[in-house]
Design a protein that fits this description.
This protein has about 170 residues and is of the alpha+beta class. Helix content is about 30%, strand content about 40%. It contains 3 helices and 11 strands; from the N terminus they run αβββββαββββαββ. The N and C termini lie far apart (about 75 Å). The relative contact order is 0.19.
C-alpha cells in the first residue's frame, strides 16, 4: 500500500519541478521579448521639417556618404542587402567599440562566406539631417570588411527610400 502512495507523490513532485522550470523558462523568454520590444521602441528617426535628403551615386554606382556614429564622422556605403549596420573591426575600434574575442559569436553570411561577428548597439547614427537612435549593428572580424555598411537597421527606419535612375538615392523621413 505504501508503494502505491509513494509513486504518485514522486510523480507529482517531479511534475512540480518540471512545471516550475517551464514557468521560469517562459518568464525568461517573456523578459527577453520585452527587452527586445523596448529596444525596438527606442529606435526612432528624428526627421527635420526640410525636404528629402539626396545622395548621388559615385562612378561605380555606389551611394557613399558621411554619417556620424556616436558623435564621430564615418564614411558609409548604403547597402540594402545588409540586414544590419556592419562596422569593420578597425572602424569600430576608432569609435571606441572594442568587443572581446568571446563576443564574436553571431554568424553572418557574407559574399565570401559565413563569419562570426560581435553584436553591438550604436547610441546614435546621423545621416544628413536625420538622427536614428539605438541602432543594432555588428562588428566584423579584423580584415574582413573595409567600409562601414549602412544596412537595414537604419534604412528601414525611414518613411521612404527611392533610387532614381540608379544614380540618385532619395531619403524621406
Amino acid at each position: 500500500m505504501v508503494a502505491r502512495v509513494v509513486a504518485p507523490v514522486i510523480v507529482l513532485a517531479l511534475a512540480g519541478v518540471v512545471g516550475a522550470q517551464v514557468v521560469a523558462s517562459r518568464a525568461e523568454r517573456s523578459d527577453a521579448a520585452r527587452q527586445a520590444q523596448a529596444q525596438q521602441a527606442a529606435v526612432q528617426v528624428v526627421s527635420p521639417q526640410s525636404g528629402p535628403f539626396v545622395v548621388n551615386a559615385d562612378a561605380r554606382g555606389h551611394f557613399n556618404l558621411p554619417a556620424t556614429i556616436n558623435g564621430r564622422v564615418v564614411q558609409v556605403v548604403v547597402d540594402t542587402g545588409a540586414s544590419m549596420v556592419a562596422l569593420p573591426f578597425e572602424e569600430a575600434a576608432r569609435l571606441g567599440i572594442r568587443p572581446g574575442a568571446h563576443e564574436f559569436r553571431h554568424p553572418v553570411s557574407t559574399a565570401n562566406g559565413t563569419v562570426q561577428t560581435a553584436q553591438v548597439f550604436l547610441g546614435e547614427v546621423r545621416i544628413g539631417p536625420y538622427m536614428i537612435q539605438n541602432v543594432r549593428a555588428v562588428v566584423m572580424p579584423a580584415g574582413v570588411l573595409d567600409k562601414t555598411l549602412l544596412g537595414m537597421t537604419v534604412l528601414s527606419r525611414f518613411g521612404r527610400i527611392e533610387i532614381e535612375n540608379g544614380r540618385r538615392l532619395i531619403v524621406r523621413g
